[in-house]
């Protein structure tokens, strides 16, 4: 066996090993926003050049077969890229509409697996923060919190009824991925207690897969993971919160512990920001502070009542 051919094959295998993984990740992410078509085409050009060199020198051996294998895998990335671009376009049509009517003065909300376009004073900006949660969270009035606490960012509530980790990734890709955001506040797990009780590893994997998809869509997006409310000190919920905190730590995300929500004072946070602005400083609240404001407001104004949610007062 020719040592040079063996080494060249080893180089090609090592160089091309990441491409099948990239195909799977890109397919699961369902968006082309973080994919560079020009880079993929450059790699394809390199493989084609290598194949042509082998053919020109009449080197018909297993090295040539490895070249072809890598080329096929990389070309699969191109197919996935155009598939994801089509999905991105469909999502844009869902959010923005396929006609040429005005898009001004609208805010996007998700409600029971459907997108509702509600008239508001302003549309989500590129500095939006998204709230992604379930039944409890969809009652949080994002527009009111924006106005009352002057968040310096548009809080967009995309929460929906009974959202679980099992369907959260597909829901994110369908309704949230096309929103250009700087941060996402996730409050998930309430619908996954039975899953966690029987298979906590799957719970962790589903949460991590969702975070991986979010990061693939928007690498610069800040994340905050919110714990489950546990007023009765339930042992299962407490263990779920320990897992959520561990996931937040491993993924370098903020962890918001709702056990302290009733002690937080959102008006104090607002007052400190107002003082900074009065001194000529333009302060934008980090995602941790925004999440604290949102859930301290929720703790004071939204209450659980026999499985239903009621606005307090």
Write a concise synopsis of the structure shown:
With 313 residues, the chain is α/β, with parallel strands linked by helices.
Structural class: alpha/beta
Low-confidence stretches: 95-126, 305-313
Shape: elongated
Rg over C-alpha atoms, rounded to the nearest angstrom: 24 Å
What's the number of helices? 11
Tally the beta strands.
9
Q: Quick check: average pLDDT?
A: 77
Order of helices and strands: HHHHEEEHEHEHHEHEHHEE
Q: Provide the helix percentage.
A: 40-55%
- In the sheet with the most strands, the strands line up as 4-3-5-6-7
Beta content: 5-15%
Instruction: State the major sheet.
Output: 5 strands, parallel
End-to-end separation = 82 Å
Describe the overall structure.
It is a single chain. By secondary structure, this protein is an alpha/beta fold. Helices cover 54% and strands 14% of the residues. The strands form three sheets. A five-stranded parallel β-sheet has the order 4-3-5-6-7, with helices on both faces. β6 (222-226), α9 and β7 (254-256) form a beta-alpha-beta unit. α2 crosses α8, α6 packs parallel to α8 (200-217) and α8 packs parallel to α9 (235-250). The longest helix has 35 residues, at 62-96. The N and C termini lie far apart (82 Å).
Secondary-structure map:
Layout: H1 3-16, H2 18-29, H3 37-56, H4 62-96, E1 106-111, E2 114-119, E3 128-133, H5 142-149, E4 155-157, H6 165-176, E5 181-187, H7 193-198, H8 200-217, E6 222-226, H9 235-250, E7 254-256, H10 266-278, H11 287-301, E8 302-305, E9 308-311
Parallel strand pairs: 3-4, 3-5, 5-6, 6-7
Antiparallel strand pairs: 1-2, 8-9
Helix pairs in contact: 1-4, 2-4, 2-8, 3-4, 6-8, 8-9
């Amino acid at each position: 066996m020719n040592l040079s051919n063996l080494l060249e094959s080893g180089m090609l295998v090592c160089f091309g090993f990441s491409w099948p993984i990239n195909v799977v990740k890109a397919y699961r992410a369902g968006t082309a926003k973080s994919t560079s078509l020009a880079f993929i085409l450059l790699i394809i050009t390199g493989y084609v050049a290598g194949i042509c060199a082998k053919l020109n020198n009449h080197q018909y051996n297993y090295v040539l077969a490895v070249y072809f294998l890598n080329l096929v895998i990389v070309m699969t990335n191109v197919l996935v890229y155009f598939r994801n671009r089509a999905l991105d376009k469909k999502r844009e049509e869902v959010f923005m509409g396929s006609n040429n009517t005005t898009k001004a003065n609208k805010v996007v909300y998700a409600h029971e697996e459907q997108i509702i376009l509600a008239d508001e004073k302003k549309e989500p900006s590129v500095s939006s923060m998204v709230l992604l949660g379930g039944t409890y969270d969809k009652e949080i009035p994002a527009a009111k919190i924006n106005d009352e606490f002057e968040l310096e960012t548009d809080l967009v509530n995309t929460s929906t009824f009974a959202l679980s980790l099992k369907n959260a990734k597909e829901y994110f890709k369908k309704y949230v991925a096309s929103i250009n955001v700087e941060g996402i506040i996730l409050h998930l797990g309430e619908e996954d207690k039975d899953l966690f009780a029987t298979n906590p590893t799957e719970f962790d994997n589903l949460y991590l897969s969702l975070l991986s998809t979010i990061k693939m869509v928007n690498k610069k997006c800040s994340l905050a993971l919110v714990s489950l409310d546990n007023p009765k000190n339930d042992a299962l919920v407490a263990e779920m919160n320990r897992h959520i905190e561990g996931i937040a730590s491993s993924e370098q995300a903020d962890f918001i512990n709702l056990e302290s929500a009733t002690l937080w004072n959102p008006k104090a946070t607002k007052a400190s920001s107002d003082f900074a602005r009065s001194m000529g400083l333009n302060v934008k609240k980090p995602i941790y502070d925004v999440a604290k404001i949102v859930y301290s407001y929720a703790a004071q104004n939204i209450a659980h009542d026999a499985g239903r949610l009621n606005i307090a007062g």
